[in-house]
Amino acid sequence: MTITRQDIEAKANEIVSAVNQATGSARDTAVVAGVVVAILIVLAFVFGRRRGARNRTLVEVYRV
Predict the structure, then answer these.
(1) Helix (H, G, I), strand (E, B) or coil at 61
(2) Residue 52 reports pLDDT greater than 70
């Protein structure tokens, strides 16, 4: 059994295709994770700001 150039090229193309497919899948997962993290950060900011405004103590100082 001999290995020809076409065999090597076919296997290389198969490997490249698999790598590209895995990269695309990983990229999609990373984008979704990034969006979820961004939404959580914005929600934490909004709720923290709201809670801070609600629990704020107002101190008035008068000079005589």
Answers:
(1) coil
(2) no
